[in-house]
Write a structure and sequence with these properties.
Elements lengths: L3 H15 L3 E2 L6 E5 L5 E7 L2 E6 L2 H14 L10 E2 L2 E5 L4 E4 L1 H4 L3
Antiparallel strand pairs: 1-2, 2-3, 3-4, 5-6, 6-7
Length: 105
Amino acid sequence: MKQVPYAWNTHIDSYFQKFGVQKCPYKHAVYMKQSKKGDILFESLCVDDLIFSEYYSSMVEEIKKSMIYEFAMTDMDLMSYYIGIEVSRNDENIFICQKKYIMGF
């Protein structure tokens, strides 16, 4: 069982490389892809959770569709909770809060 995280990380790394997604040399759980138009997609991986971030949704939709064929994946749409952090947003801002984490869930 100790080898499962290593196998998963190796598999996702090779998958991302196949699609031109590069691993950040400074933060090993962060990946980046830049389109020919200059759009940038950031991906953050924490164990088996993956967060996509970009200005335009075309790159996110493209990679989500391709990942559905490769992995048993559930699209949770916009992030509302992630590793102890609550995330909410309005038209202008994104807010994060750890109240549930501090209160002991």
